[in-house]
Amino acid sequence: MASLKKSFPELVYLNGDWLAHDKAFVSVFDRGYMLGDGIYEVIPVYNGQPFAVEGHMLRFQAGLDAVGIGFDVDDLRPLLRQCLERSSLHGSDAAIYIQVTRGVAPRTHFFPEDVKPSVLLYAYPITLRGFENKLASVMISEDIRWHRCDIKSISLMANVRANNEAHRQSLAENLLSREGYITEGSHTSVFFVKNNTVYTHPEGHHILPGITRRVVIDLCGDLGLKLKEEAVQSDEVRNVDEIFLTGTTVQITAVTSVHLDGNEVFRTQDAGPITKMLQTAFIGKVAAET
Ligand code: PDD
Question: Would the keyword Amino-acid biosynthesis turn up in this protein's UniProt record (predicted)?
């Protein structure tokens, strides 16, 4: 994860046109550019089939509604397939990035009226297979984000700052701790296993309601695993049996090392048995649905 070299997608959809990435421009007065005033979504695509689309679209609409951006995400549905076809990814593993900003208007702190939202969408290839063989080393730091982390805002300063701190130390993720409790990662949800019970932070304003997180919670039910939506204290991480990250880009990735204040507070050799069970079940679910 740490040294991923990415290239720009060749083609992007911007406000009704399909354009080469280096020909796609927005105004400097776009409120996304100027104020980070927008919502985004990332959808995984397996074999050319978008996965868990309904959950992603519902969350996207909920985010736009929460910040009063008048846009119907159903308008995007035909574009999902089109962007995969136009990008020659209709048979591949990929991700679709979508962002809707409030649009172009003179800079004000209040929401301007009668502004047309700006829409950006593109597909890009990513490696989704083999996540079950990856082992992540992570760190813990203070969660300094705003109090509406449930809204997938494009303003990600605190997230990118946290992730960069991990990246600088060649770590895969930074787990965020608010008032002593782990909320989630900079771009992933996090689960812990202790005494055969699976723990993850409850939904609410302090985490993003991860779509992969929800799939994993449902898989726990299918597998008869005990699950508690309860936060784990940063100080307790040293006593857990297993840790794993979930998310569109990491799916279910085992954590084998955790650093807190410069000390390694958790270490295992491999993914734990419950993590492995969930990974196998997840692979089965994806195969059945895509
Ligand atoms: N990140 N928590 C945060 C803060 C996230 O940004 C993400 C996703 C998740 C996992 O959510 P999901 O399972 O729905 O992908 C949890 C995306 C992929 C990103 O920012 O690129």
Answer: no
What tens digit of pLDDT does each residue of 124-183 get?
Answer: 999 999 999 999 999 999 999 999 999 999 999 999 999 999 999 999 999 999 999 999
Residue 199 counted as domain residue: yes
Number of folded domains that form the chain? 2
CATH number at residue 209: 3.20.10.10
pLDDT band at 27 (very low <50, low <70, confident <90, very high): very high
Rounded distance, CA 100 to CA 151, Å?
Answer: 13
Ligand 1, residue 149: give the atom nearest the CA: 4
**What range does the domain containing 192 cover?**
131-289
Same domain, 235 and 275: yes
Q: 88-113 pLDDT, tens per residue?
A: 999 999 999 999 999 999 999 999 99
Distance of CA 238 from the midpoint of ligand 1 (Å): 25
In a domain, 1, yes or no: no
The answer to whether the beta carbons of residues 103 and 117 sit under 8 Å apart is yes
The pTM score is 0.97
Please indicate, yes or no, whether residues 186 and 148 belong to a single structural domain of this protein: yes
Quick one: 173 and 238 in the same domain?
A: yes
Q: Which residues line ligand 1 (CB under 6 A)?
A: 42, 159, 184, 187-189, 208, 210-213, 246-249
User: Is 218 in contact with 146 (CB distance < 8 Å)?
Assistant: no
Map residue 179 onto helix, strand or coil: coil
The encoded tokens of residue 7 equal: 């290239």
Number of H helices, E strands in the chain: 6, 15
Ligand 1 atom nearest the C-alpha of 211 is 14
Q: What torsion do the CA atoms of 245, 141, 200, 132 make, to the nearest 10 degrees? A: 10
